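**User:**
If convenient, please work through this fold.
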Amino acid sequence: MAEDRNVPPPLTLVPAKPDLFALFARVLFLDATFAKGSVLDFQHGDMSKIKELTPSSGSHLIIFSFPFQPSSFSLSFMASERLKALIALRWASKPTSNQSIKTLRGGRSDGGFEPRPGTKVESADADGVPGEWVVYGTPGSESIFLFLHGGGFCRSSGPASRRIASNLSAACGCRCFTVDYRLAPEHTFPAAIDDTYTAYRWLRKQGIPPERIVVGGSSAGGGLTASLLTKLKQSGHRQPAAAVFISPWTDLTQSASTYRTNADSDCSISKEHLDRMARQYLDGADPKHPLASPVFTNLSGLPPMLIQVGKLETMYGDAEAYAEKAGRAGVPVEFEGYDHVPHAWHNSDHLVPGIPEVHAAIDRIGEFFKAHS
């Protein structure tokens, strides 16, 4: 990626002692925007103050006593300090079963709406599907990256993906197009894949050939990426040049063994949470439908794939199963399992800027993009 990341001063993480688990977190901002040394408390799971009071460039943020579950208290010394800070934030905001969809969706205070400096954002109507062109600097490639956001099919948006889209644009040297597909429970399956397919076909109508399109997404967006490849195959359309999967959700039955074995190590996603999101999205449809759970279909004839996932994720098994099945079908697959990182860590640059593990993974995507488009 470009070297003008404007990395702020170091973050210091001071986790609470195991015998001092509290249902609150304390954040100390040393920034001229606030009273120097002021301390803010907020309830476990409520990230609103973090989002509203993200320190500006040049500030120093010290995080104290984020609640860890006893079985998950240790953080590997191999992880960067910034990654440790992100993991603490994730534990503090991990979705719970009693949160409403409205609460999970939050508001525009999410810093993901703000692209990296030097980025232009332009709205587009993809045959009725809202989208945005997110372009960092002057792209050197004529190829484009079609990005599909995550959020369990029930939250987040295209506009909330401007930060990761701008980072992908910078790493790939291309234009990035984000799709603001319809969300459940208001719009259930197959609304999301229908919108994704419409947006892809619209890009083709703009004169962009398949060999100039790389499709990718994170979490549910990774699942939609796989579903799009399946739908294109079913419809007899040419496949894109390549596909990128970030912690993909490819099996809406949540049947992978890692939902059990990684239950205590995943700071972001639980089986119970995904079961709920799947019910909201499917609304009674077969969870093994090939456009809902693309791992249950024939994967032959699909384009080269890069799959990145954290080894501690509950959804690690989804990524692994999809990669193995695609490989057996003759698809070129590059599978990368990362130590220490949380679910879809690529999306975290707006929460803790300058995480080395985030930029390393996105740089790898840039290399893959340039090699295949």
